[in-house]
Amino acid sequence: MVSEAMANQQEDPTVCKERGNEDFKNGHWDAAISWYSKAIKFGEKQKELPVFYKNRAAAYLKQEKYSKALDDCSKSLEGCPNDPKALFRRSQAYEALEKFEEAYKDLRTIHTYDPNNKTIKPHLERLHAIVQERVRQRAQTSNKVAQMFQIAFDLAAIKEKREQAMNNIVVLARETAGAETMLKEGLVTRIGKLLKVEKNNDIITNAIRAIDEVCTRSSDRTKTVIKELGIPWFLQILDTEVEDRVTASQHCMQTVLNSLSGMENKEDSKPDKDLVESNKQLIDTLLSCLVYSVTERTISGLARDAIMELIIRNVHYKTLDWAEQLVEMKGLVRLMEVCSELEEYKYESAMNITASSRTIASVCLARIYENMYYDAAREVFTNQIADFVKDKLLTPDHESKVRVTVAITALLLGPLEVGNTMISREGIMQMILVMAQSDDVLEQKVACECIIAAASKKDKAKGLIQSGAEILKKLYTSKNEEIRVRALVGLCKLGSSGGLDASIRPFADGSTKKLAEACRKFLIKPGKDKSIRKFAAEGLAYLTLDADVKEKLVEDRAAIKGLIELAKTGDQSAIYGVVTTLVNLVNAYEKQEIVPELVELAKFAKHHIPEEHELDDPDFVSGRIIILANEGVTSGLVALCKTESDNSKEMIARVFNALCSEQEVRGKVVQQGGAKVLLPLSLKGTANGKRHAAQALSRIGITINPEVAFPGQRNLEVIRPLLNQLHPDCSSLENFEALMALCNLASMNETTRQRIIKEKGISKIETYIAEDHVLLRRAATQVICNMVQSEDVVKLHEKENDRVKFLALLTQEEDEDTAMAASGALAYLTGVSEKSCEKMFTPAAWLDIFHTLVANPSPDVQHRGLVIILNIVNTSKSLAEKIFDTDLLRMLYGVTQLNDERRAKAIETAQKCLKVAEEYRLIEENKDADLLPDVFQQNDREAALESIEE
Question: For the domain that residue 115 is a member of, what is the CATH number?
């Protein structure tokens, strides 16, 4: 009966409202929203329904969910028009959403019905000023827009002026007022017409960027744009061979999806469920068009790659969660068609593909498979792939076998589990081995590539050493270089199955070096096409696990240049070979920690113990890093960063981090664009990849002036990855380097300090002030020393907490730099905050702290300490009395008697302190400590001086 009564209570809307009110008062916003939602659900026909909506809106405002607050206020006003509280809350939501005119209108409505309402008066005045200013700006903007439109859309105007005008339109569209004004003035329609006839690539690209900016963070503007241009327009602008235009079009399409779903290009940005639901039909249509366009025969290869990359970014459950829908509409078959496409088959109906297309398709398949998180979904995925393979093999001709083999290779590079399932099916591996021994060059090529991909795990490699090694050796004798290089890669892969263990060599001694020399010849031989160089790099990716090969390769400048030039092409199918080779050269791979006790145990049990090669010593690694940096490896890495493969991004981040471990090459990394690409790498990808990229940014931020390393907006964007390094899972070195970089950033300007505060950095930094590790404690204190220049941080120290007390205790640290930073922070705080001056007396041993500061052996710490005392005594007479009623007065006089040029600032500050004491007439009043020079006792003077001298 009790439980039934409780259940009835929970369904009583009035009770739910009261529970919600209680949670609201206690600051439990989620719980309050839950109760108000129940009140709305169970009180649909109640008179109090507008109150329930109005109260829930208040909770949404606290959570900064302004769109939801706006909706609730509007529903409340439907039931109770002109309710002042609902109007006021809706005004707050409108203002937060930068809809100032609507916010002002709601406040005016309140004022009309309640002219004596004093609460809204300051808000009304403030919004009136904003609205008036916006009217003025809009008038100016309208004039600018008219001038720019007249030039930009006039095909007969001077080329340079048109380009500048269109660039100005892009800049103006970044502002909300500019975007809305241009939208009303017909920008979208004008651009739609212009792009049908425009020939100037710069103008076309900037016109697309203007549409991008208009759509940014506005679902309403985005829907207006789609209504005017139509969805096919976005696919048409993608279809070009001009890379800049494809990139701009792809970004524009992603912006449209972001605006319709509430996502942003930020780490862990999640879609707004309500917004996604309201725009579901439009989002589904856009994504369906993308999927159907994957196999469109008439589009360019670059456009096809861009479409697949868009699918990769939006199918994951963390984004638009569209993977299952894609599988349902047979999207896997379309991606497999791309995987099976070969440039050698030149038909009218053949797809245009790039060297990266199959790689991107395999990454896309892998991303979709990640979302198949339950057995039934995985079974559907695997069955669709199996049906594709089966259908291709129903026609047992030469071409079908080749296409199936190429497609299986792509699966082995993407969703490996599915690839292994396909290749283990009866007859598939036998077919591939037969193809490898045929006389047809194309069959040999694709069979070789499939064998290489199949040997991806040690257990697979062992099986292939027996069945495939002889075939590969035979193919290596082929006169066709494309066959030879592929066979070479297979042999390299099988030959490297011992990994990093210097004691395991599957092939005879000296074979590895011979294979490496063969790869080198293919890599540097003039006139070699990109595919041959790509396979040569992949061979080296396996062989450079051997330290002898690393040293030999890094000394060969021609081979290193060939590797870097291949990277600069940006060919995503070359990523694995190039980046893995670089990871091996700089020893940036994951190293297993060797515990001495376990080694001894392994020896006792007669187990094999891995051995590290002497050429993998840190000095050799350092030398290799410097050589690669000087050869311009950063440029190559930057070009490869466009990949959508998280594993590839991690490898790139590892190489960057290794480069940045050497202080002398960090400048080159920045000069060649490394810092710019490290930012996205530090925010998206695998956990290890983000850590390596963030640590590389930390190292750059320590050595190079942040204004140079991270110009413009970048110095704000870098803060989040650095703060992510202040985590228990990160090593002490990562923590320390991040703190050092943050210290430099905090010294830049108030905008940077505000971003650190906004990202909740203060609490993370302060955690390390209490660390036992002296370097971490020092670095954290130095960051706080720079952060106290912010008024908000000063206010934090003024609150009821021990922040000032902790800094005061840190001034007694033996480490001079820590004491200097702590005393520096306090010198600033006490100079601007009376409350901080009062808090200096909260430690029980406050007098000992002041003794330490005044008598400090460090001239800098002593000067800061005396500044603190001067600030305190200047604050009020009562605080001055606390200071001067102690032996500090005697010590201050002792400081003034010093004859030490290094302490000139300290002596001058001590004199100022004594002058304040005289002004307060505290020296005369203190009869027990008469410090006038003619009566100052000799023994007291000596004691004071002795306490100060080093």
Answer: 1.25.40.10
